[in-house]
Amino acid sequence: MNGVAILGVGMSRFGMYPNRSVHEMACEAGNLALDDAGLTFKDIDAVYAGHIFHQAMTGVRAVKELGMTGVPVQRIENASATGSCALREAYLQVRSGVYDRVLVLGFDKMTQVMGSAPSPQDMDEAILPAAFFAMWATRRMHERGTTPAHLAKIAAKNWNFGALNPVSQRQAKETVTPEQVLASKMVAWPLTAMMSCPIGDGAAAVVVCRDDLAKKYQPGKPVIRIAASHLGSEKYERGHLFMGPVVGPAQMSRDAATDIWAQAGMGPEDIDLVQVHDAFVIEELEYYELLGFCREGEAEKAIEEGWFEASGRTPFSTDGGLIARGHPGGPTGLAQIWETVHQLRGTAGKRQLAKARAGLCHMMGGGSVCAAHILVKE
Amino acid sequence: MTDAPRPRVPIKEGYFSIPDDPAAVPNVVLSRCADCGEHFFPQRLVCGKCLSRKIERVEVPARGTLYSYTWVHMPLFGSMRIEHMEGYGVGQIDLPEGPRVQLPLAGKRDDYAVGIPLVGEVEPLREESGRDVCILRFRPAGSPS
């Protein structure tokens, strides 16, 4: 099997863009990734296009803007994990030797599709998604004594990382404090607006290739290798919630961690930075434990001691996370890859970490799938 | 002379049933696996535990224990009633039969705490074609409906 490397990344800044089409955003991100890789669209063997929303064939049509060379183009969709799953398809194809150079493109324009929000006629969709995550927080508060101040500290960290990221949707002009986060509008108790990700539009792209080709295309540059790729879905256990866009069983993330550590021959102690699905801040807190970056029941202490901040032992959500960088849907998982690649290359600007050799990207999709990748600089 | 009460209908069939007696506790519609006995809500086609295809429909009274809850500061989806505009509670309720259901809560946040016993009630959202379209929600056991 081939080793798989990431040759290039590109992003169109997430935000609210009523006057930009999905094609325009996807084309911008795709061309940035191709330029970063040092390739042209003619070099690409296949494209995976990830979008949650928009009509059939939107992916293929967006790719036409980049070039019409006859390459296979395939849409991938798995809710929030769409971009991560599109990357995984590219990884599997390059790893198995079917293709050598694959473009992964993720995009969505949530501001265009909010009219297709859940129908109030449907019992399955009648509750606001924030409520599901809020109930995870309430339960945690009951079991572990977590306070809204713990949640606010995580959110403030992510807002402040976002301010250092030029493609972050939210860029606060002044340092955000936990007090501001707590004082923002209550969405679903105990979660406030500043503890929740915004809706938005955007695109991100990644070029994946055989690792021996990466050395040829980019001599003298470090090779960023995909050391592990995981995708899993839910296992039944008593108490499973079948209705609605749910949080998903915690076990899915534990299983993802077990798998990627085995694939990469690594453990949490080998990872320098982590990106997670922090659509609502309670998620990041839970993933500290579920992915093994602290022991069960230790997250609150770890937050108080700053383990996951820029200067801590393993910084999380270093580009601002879903909460600040944004979460348009299809491109979100690829934005995590964009950030990790820049950190590993040492090109992350003001938010560059002192030590960045290996990074973990974790994504949930609709509470029903969990994707995870480890990137390692060699 | 008072108007006869409008007939009450569930917002969607197959999730809960509304008793004729307004004071009676509504029923939750579950699937029960004929092979392993596991219960599911909503109804399922294949047993999620043992993969048996022998699934039967059962109705049980809407009673349970609060596993977790929240209060949403948005209008309740699909409701036309002024008292639903300020927001609504949502709870995860463990039924004694096993399933954990996720449904709206009545009243206010201070009425609730993890672990308290709850009972179901039928709540009208709006009138449609002379009938009240209703959801199933929960309230603390022993509190007035």
Describe this structure in words.
The complex is a heterodimer of chains A (378) and B (145). In chain A, the strands form two sheets. Chain A has a nine-stranded mixed beta sheet with strand order 3-2-4-7-1-8-11-10-9, sandwiched between helices. A two-stranded antiparallel sheet of chain A has the order 5-6. Chain A starts with a strand and ends with a strand. Chain A contains 13 helices and eleven strands. By secondary structure, chain A is α/β, with parallel strands linked by helices. About 2% of the residues of chain A have low confidence. With 145 residues, chain B is mostly beta strands. Chains A and B meet through helix 5 and strand 5 of A and strand 6, strand 7 and strand 8 of B.
* End-to-end separation of chain A: 18 Å
Low-confidence stretches of chain B: none
How many DSSP E strands of chain B?
A: 10
Strand content of chain B: over 45%
Give a nutshell description of this structure:
Helices cover 35% and strands 20% of the residues of chain A. Chain A contains 13 helices and 11 strands. In chain A, the strands form 2 sheets. Chain A has a 9-stranded mixed beta sheet, with helices on both faces. In chain A, strands 5-6 form a two-stranded antiparallel ribbon.
Defining key terms:
heterodimer; A: 378 residues; alpha/beta; nine-stranded mixed beta sheet; B: mainly beta; six-stranded mixed beta sheet; 10 strands; 0% helix
Set out the fold topology.
The complex is a heterodimer of chains A (about 375) and B (about 140).
Chain A (H helix, E strand, L loop, with lengths): L3 E12 L6 H16 L8 E5 L7 H7 L8 E4 L5 H15 L4 E9 H4 L15 H16 L3 H15 L15 H6 L2 E4 L1 E2 L8 E10 H7 L6 E10 L17 H14 L8 E3 L5 H10 L8 H6 L16 H4 L7 H14 L12 E8 L3 E9 L1
Parallel strand pairs in A: 2-3, 2-4, 9-10
Antiparallel strand pairs in A: 1-7, 1-8, 4-7, 5-6, 8-11, 10-11
Chain B lengths: L7 E3 L5 E2 L9 E7 L5 E2 L14 E7 L1 E10 L15 E7 L5 E6 L11 E12 L2 E10 L5
Parallel strand pairs in B: 1-10
Antiparallel strand pairs in B: 2-3, 3-4, 3-5, 6-7, 6-9, 7-8, 9-10
